[in-house]
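Continuing the batch. This is chain 6 of the set; chains 1 through 5 are on the previous pages. Same settings as before, nothing changed between runs. Recording input and output for traceability.
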Amino acid sequence: MTAMDTLAQLFAAGHIIQPGAPLATPGQRLVESRALAILGRPELDAARDRIAALFGADRNAKLADQHALIAQSVAEHVVHGALIAASETPRTPRFVWTIALAREWLGQLLPGSRIGQDNPDNVYRFASVDPAFAYRISGCFPGPEPRDFSICALPAQVGEGIAADVRGIITRDSLDVDAEGRFEIDVDASASDGRRNHLCIAGARVLMVRDTLADWGVELPSYLRIDPIDAAGDPVVAEDDFDPAAVAARAAELATGIAEFFLDRVQHGMCEVAPLNTVPPPVSSAGRGGLVTQSATLGYYRLGDGEAWVLDIDPMGARYLGVQICDMWMLSYDYSLRTSCFNHRQALADADGRYRLVVSAADPGVHNWLDGGGHPVGTILLRWQGIPAGADFAGAVTTRVVRLADLPRALPPETRFLDAAGRAAQRAERLAAYRRRLTGDNPQQNP
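Output for chain 6:
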């Protein structure tokens, strides 16, 4: 039996909606339906007004062409707040995919829900838990595994006063998986004490899952299910206590608080600290409350007409390197359609093993173009995961601003340039690879 056969069995049992599409679960559809049903309530209208006022009063609102970006960020913060609030049923927990692009699937249209300088390579899922209960996570890697996988136990929702503040974590390295890609994880408040496939949730309320996909055209996120269990390990059937009025109030509170947190603590407190058009050496994300297995750095840029920003990046032997640009309101640009991010599998390395990426408002004609949709202002984030011991962070990234006309002389001779047809092909390939998150289709398994 293969992992795909396992998924077919899960589908037949009603545990997933579409065979091979691990994110398309009945729980996902239920929470999305509940979130959509409250988006028109007055509590959410009030939250939109508060976030719009917050962003509108910010110093970055004075930059050119920010109105549409602000409006988009306001809308997506509210959708994310609604999805999270609708999922906060720890007696009947469900892993819910959010912090993602808009999508039409499962018979409904879900607007975007991006927040917090989201990583386009990550599939983010959340489930609410209660340390007074015990749970079992059943999972399966349905094909080639993600480049990185982790489940973190957090004391609150991301952005609810914390970036992450990890209380417990299980990673792929601490997870036993059978030959078919299946695994189970016991979840409760007892200390792990070296136990594998166990996650301690003492002091936690939220489980946050990251599937990091490097090769979008091959890797798939994991299938996950979480069930409450009794002392004997048997499933517990509990009443779903969803309350639309309470959820609407909670969604408004979350959306507003998350917008305030990321604007102050991350946008101003991290992205805009180093001088303009520079990027400091990376530091451990754990020291900033983020993923404990990651090191990262952030910056912001502002380019004049005819200028390009060239980044020279050392992968430092990391298992994963991701680079992305975002707007000034904590949203990724549409990475399904534009090359607004690259990881080590998507970008082309030069002969010395380093990556040179170019940020510019106009297409510079290079393969490694970070495309912000014509906006010359934004933020940049670089993430390394699985860095070998002894790596030299000091030379990890350097930057310089050059004229677009001088770009061919500023880049190595082996730089790959694209004409209009080449760019169109790159975008089409990217979109097809991204859509596998929704469909689960794997070209290697379905030639």
